[in-house]
Design goal:
The chain is an alpha/beta fold and about 375 residues long. The chain contains 13 helices and 14 strands. The chain has a ten-stranded mixed β-sheet with strand order 3-4-5-6-9-10-11-12-13-14. It has a two-stranded parallel ribbon with strand order 1-2. The chain is globular, with a radius of gyration of 21 Å.
Length: about 375
């Protein structure tokens, strides 16, 4: 059986090489060739013994995901669509900025969380990606961009697990992928520059804190359970107080001294002054336990199936001002790549849904969102 070496972190590759009768330093050499140099052909790996190269040809390969398409935005953002088989495709997005290059990576074909404002969730869920499929997005983007920019220097300085899927619902594949990205023999990313975004899978947040603590972003999007139950259905399992307690526990291990709360601004839904004041009270309630945070307000990127609208700029500014005046660090995310559907919440790829999401979303859209958010008795079965 031929294995894909992109599926291994360094410890996994070491174990594989030991099965071939090779020493650990051979795994390190091989790992560097694959991730630092982007090599696929074992014959290119000139400092490996010919006997090892011959062994590898018989049982291994470096197999990245096929690229279906590439789109470039007027602002320099690049979006790739990768084929993951069986009619599924996932998206990754490169966002260039003056002081960094950020890659947004997918972890699942689709998403089972079903957030009301996210186009990925409206497509449903097919399957988890493998470690190799997650890593492949970085492997491809880094080495393609180096060639395009004619540089040997690292192009991607930051990775955010904010593409398609809920990363913590694919934990067993996620953690080895993170370790590849962090490894100095691989991509050498700082823990502060590698961010996992979650809608609030509390038990897995605790595991990540113990196994591989990186920067954490939490998709909050509402100041109370009644509204968050509607916008982020996972809240029914892990309500806000439980989620913020998990954030406090995570901070003990986190590489940064704050948690980022992502908050998608939805016109007339969660963007009113009373919502901002509720957020202030929420943060103050948990601050005594040590929670320290910043808010990233995200302009909603509309799509027809959502039935939602983007908050006006003046409303976003007023909302941000209430948080800032209460002493909470608040930023408004600049929308990038929306002309190629590469902005936050727009990644949809192609998903062969196994979760009947169309029927469930249609049912939820028949009830006005303000009514659903008014109390906790309107929970969908």
């Amino acid at each position: 059986m031929t294995v894909n070496l992109l599926d291994f972190d360094l410890d996994g590759l070491t174990a594989f090489c030991e099965q071939l009768g090779e020493k650990r330093f051979r795994a390190t050499q091989l790992f560097r060739w694959i991730h630092q140099r982007g090599a696929q052909d074992f014959d290119q790996m000139s400092d490996l013994a010919k006997s090892l190269r011959d062994k590898l040809k018989g049982c291994a390969q470096v197999l990245p995901l096929p690229v279906v398409s590439e789109h470039q935005s007027a602002d320099g953002t690049v979006k790739w669509l990768f084929d993951v088989g069986a009619g599924n495709a996932v998206e990754a997005v490169f966002i260039p900025e003056d002081d960094r290059g950020t890659l947004c990576v997918s972890s699942q074909a689709g998403c089972a969380v079903g957030c009301r404002f996210c186009s990925t969730g409206h497509q449903g869920f097919s399957r988890n990606l493998t470690t190799g499929e997650i890593v492949s997005q970085l492997w491809f983007a880094e080495h393609v961009l180096r060639k395009r920019f004619q540089t040997q220097d690292r192009v991607i300085s930051n990775v955010v697990m904010m593409g398609m899927g809920e990363p913590l619902q694919n934990y067993s594949a996620l953690v080895p992928a993170l370790r590849v990205m962090l490894d100095d023999h691989g991509y050498g990313l700082s823990r502060r520059r590698l961010t996992v975004s979650t809608s609030g899978v509390v038990p897995m947040m605790d595991r990540l804190a113990a196994d591989c603590p990186v920067a954490l972003a939490v998709s909050l999007h509402a100041p109370n359970d009644a509204l968050r139950d509607v916008l982020v259905p996972l809240n029914r399992k892990y309500p806000i107080d439980e989620l913020l307690d998990a954030c406090n526990r995570y901070l003990v291990h986190a590489p940064r001294d704050f948690i980022t709360f992502e908050y998608c601004m939805l016109d007339g839904v969660n963007d009113q002054p009373e919502h901002a004041h509720q957020l202030v009270e929420l943060v103050r309630k948990h601050a005594g336990k040590g929670v320290w945070c910043k808010f990233n307000l995200i302009p909603f990127n509309p799509f027809p199936a959502s039935g939602l609208r983007r908050s006006e700029s003046a409303q976003v500014s007023a909302f941000a001002r209430i948080l800032s005046e209460a002493g909470i660090v608040t930023t408004v995310r600049k929308t990038r790549g929306d002309d190629i559907d590469a902005a936050c919440g727009q990644l949809a790829g192609e998903v062969q849904d196994r979760t009947r999401v169309a029927q469930r979303m249609a049912k939820r859209r028949t009830i006005p969102i303000a009514v659903m958010g008014a109390g906790s008795d309107n929970k969908e079965a």
